[in-house]
TrEMBL record:
Mg(2+) 2 binds at E407. NCBIfam families: lysS_bact, PRK00484.1. This is Lysine--tRNA ligase. Mg(2+) 1 binds at E400, E407. The lineage of its organism: Bacteria, Bacillati, Saganbacteria. Its cofactor is Mg(2+).
Amino acid sequence: MNDELSELLKVRRDKLNEFKAQGMDPFPYHFEKDNYAAPLLEKFQTLKEGDESPSEVRVTGRVMTKRGHGKAAFATIQDETGRIQVYGKLDLLGEQKYELYQKLDLGDIIGVKGKIFKTKTGEVSIKLSDFTLLCKSLHPLPEKWHGLQDKEIRYRERYVDLIVNPEVKDVFVKRSKVVSLIRHTLEDKGFIEVETPILHIMQGGAAAKPFETFHDALNMPLFMRIAPELYLKRLLVGGFEKVYEMGRVFRNEGMSYKHNPEYTMIEIYQAFADYNNVMALTEELVVTAAKAVAGSLEIEFRGEKINLAPPWKRISLLEALKEHGVDIINKDEAAIRRLAKEKGIEGAEEIGQGKIINELYDKFVEPNLRQPTFITDHPLETSPLAKKHRDKPGQVERFELIIAGMELANAFSELNDPLDQRERLKKQAELKAAGDTEAESMDEDFLRALEYGMPPAGGVGIGIDRLVMLLTNQASIRDVLLFPHMKPLQQAKPKEAELKILDHEGN
């Protein structure tokens, strides 16, 4: 089979040389196009059989199908808007050009010129007066029925996936639309987009393990950011009242259908607001995106129906635990530890009470929350950057948005008391010294900024990748990342190497 693939590659290179010998540059610099496939199909749908467009069109595309022999042959070319049929005929192209037309392979990119007409079967097509080879494809496209089905190959060779699976491209067009809508909505509300460093002197802004690198000129270690939070809060200190940043964050953690080591997040901060305000904003952003991208607030995700119609359920973390059979309300620490041990929480004897509550929540609540739910009022111990709850001792004003068992957003009434923040970061530093790689760092510059005075504020981080997964009904985060992280090809499973040779010539 490998010999077969090698032979296919050789045939294509031989054709490359044939084009050169006929005086046609297989990799020219430019082609002046004036139309796209989909608009032409729509514009000339009412064209009658036998009629032609008054003028010629110039279109580019990749050859996806070919049929016909002798003195006439059809091909289908694909551009970014869709596919259109082209018709090449010996007496229109001339003998030399028609011979080259017949030598085109699936995957070749061509520019065509000709008038629009309708075939006897009613298909809008381009009758070629000329064509130009714009790029000779030296590797065959996957065979139609068996080629690019394996997920691992599709992720690794996304460029081929996009060519042969149009629905994949549609997901990423929708992703772009989600991002654009969020930006426009925030800008209409007076928010400005900013950029903050990706390389951080110390980790901070979230409970996560960072990637570490080293800067040679400064002779110092640096961390890929796990969140932009602490820099955005510095901007609130500096007088910005509504800011957001959308970009990559990096977390050196496990991979799953909803986790990738780098992903896109938007963090939004609004001065003189609290977590109730950003809760309403979060709901509005998701609903706006759903209406535009999914076309409805009733969507399907991973085989279940999700209703995004507001208002969404709001429930405290402790009440949510009670709803799911874990009642720890008004129980002392010893009772909570005993219950956690009974429920199978590992290390319940050693970790703090707040972490025990989080472990119980992660196990019994979050996976079972299917419809949009704001889980509010989290343990103080696990939220070192959030303001203490105004009415509930031991808790903070924080919410997580959960949909279909996934956390889509995390938000606080932001802690702006520099003395309280210092004490909490001291405790985090102790945890880090004891081996907790996810604990916050003691960031003196951030604390100094708070001492100048940060207004009360609400802030929220929203996972863009998970939101796109939800709105496009994609089973894995890798389906909404153009180039998800993969092991090197040498470490890929044997099945992957075998499937690659199912490619064929297609003629």
